[in-house]
Structure formats: C-alpha cells, structure tokens
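Cross-check.
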Amino acid sequence: MTVTERASVGKTAVPTRRRVLPWRNPWRRPYMLATITWIYILWSLVPVLVAVQFSFNDGRSRSTWQGFSHQWYCCSEGSVFEDPSMFASLRNSLILGIATVIVATPLGVALAMGLTRWRSRASTVANGIALVPLVTPEIVVGSALYLVVVNLYQFVPLGRPAMLLGHVTFTVSYVLVIVRSRLLSIGGEYEEAARDLGANSLQAIRTILLPLLMPAVFASAMIVFATSLDDFVVSQFLFGSAENATVPILLYNAVRASPTPALNALASILLAGTFLALVLAYLGLRVRRRGGDESALETLADWG
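Predicted model, tokenized:
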C-alpha cells in the first residue's frame, strides 16, 4: 500500500459545496428589478393622480390646492354635468362605446369561429389580415378611413356613423384574438360529443360552445368598450362637427385654452370608466373555465 493510499484510509469523503453566483441564486429576490419597476409605476401614476386630485379642488386653479370640493363634477355652474359641451361629449363617448361593443363583439366571435374551423393555406393569410389593425399605427388607420369615407363610402356621413365604422374596424381584432385563443384551448371534443348524442351544429354551438365562450366574450367586450372610450386619433379624423365630439377630442381641444378643474373631472370620469371596464375584463377571464365547463357537461349529460 502506498503512502497516498494509507493516508486516504479512514477518511470520510466530504461533499464539496458548489458556489452559487449571486445573480444565479433562485432564492435571491431581484431587488434592483423590483425597484426599477416601482419607480416606473410611480412615474406613470403620479401625473394621473395629480390630475385626479385637482378635479376635487375647491377653487378654479389647476396647480394650487385650495381645498376639497366635488363642485366640478356636478350641481354647480361650470361642472361636468352642468356644462352642455362636456356632458354632450361624455354622452357621445358612452353611446359610441356601447354601439361599438354591440357591433364588434358578435362580428369578432363569428370571425374567430370561422377562422378556427377554416383549415387551408388561405386561412393563414386571412388570420394575418385580421390582425393587421393591431399592428397598424392609429394615425394610418384614421387617415385611411377618412379618405375612404370621404371619397368612396360617401353614403356613410362623417360623425357618429363614420366613427362607429372606424372603431369597429380596429376593435374587432381584440375580440378575434381573445375568443380564438379560448376556442383553441377548448378544442372540438365538446361539439363532437354533442353531435354524437344527437345535437345538430347549431344546437351544439348554442348550448355547448357559447356557454364555454361567454367569459372570453365578456372580457373582449369590456376591452372593446375601454378602447373605444379612450380612442382619440380615429375619432379626430371622423367626428365631423363639434356636436359629435367625444371626451378625448374635447380634452385635446380645451386643454390649450384656460380650462377649469372641470376638465380634470371629465378626464377622471373617463379614467374611472376605462379602469372599471378593464377590471371587469380581468374578472371575466378569471372565471372562464370552471362554470362553463360544468354547464357544458351537464348539457351533455341531459342529452345522453
């Protein structure tokens, strides 16, 4: 036995501990990334919060705090609901948003169902074309729609009809993307099972597929409503006269003058409506599976 072998006898092997570099440690919290993220969030939110704060200012200043009051929202001269132009713009935004949801949501659902079932080379091209409004700059869409309405679709007058056409054009893609992703996650097993149990195509869609799609349809409708409320570029090209102006158009035209905090109040109402629609869309996506799947299984069981 050599000296080296005798030295190694009786010794217990001690496992070496591998050194983990700090940036590769999975248990180390990314404090730097979290700090940068919160700085960005605060940088984005502080101007909005300041604007909302001055909508409750007791005086006419939009830079000096003079006390708390809700006079710029309602029940006083110059408030949102007492100023005819502001109230009309808020009404126009709500009407346009609701009309866009009514038209774009069924159209987007039908397109999603059709493109999901269409299996050919042309379907790939059609899918790409359907998503073009999502990647096209809004100013390009707005100017193109204005030229088309003025020169080609002259039966569509500028104003609410043209704005509705424009909003449906670029919001239907949101419905298509959300509903189509839900269709792909569902698959075709439920419909095939319904047909095996005696249901025709329309019955399978109405009683099986649509309940499964309802959370995604609701979420897409809320996103369409929020997008329509916030849109400025397309509406600016197509609104025609001042009586059809929406809230974003009025804010853009009035901010260069000497506005009162009522303008902040109008913007805060628009912000609250958009935020509420997005929260409802998020809740709709969270509820998407369990309830719809259980109702579909119950319907299949009744047919069986």
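The chain has one domain: 84-303. The domain at 84-303 is CATH 1.10.3720.10 (MetI-like fold). Passed to J.P. for a second look.
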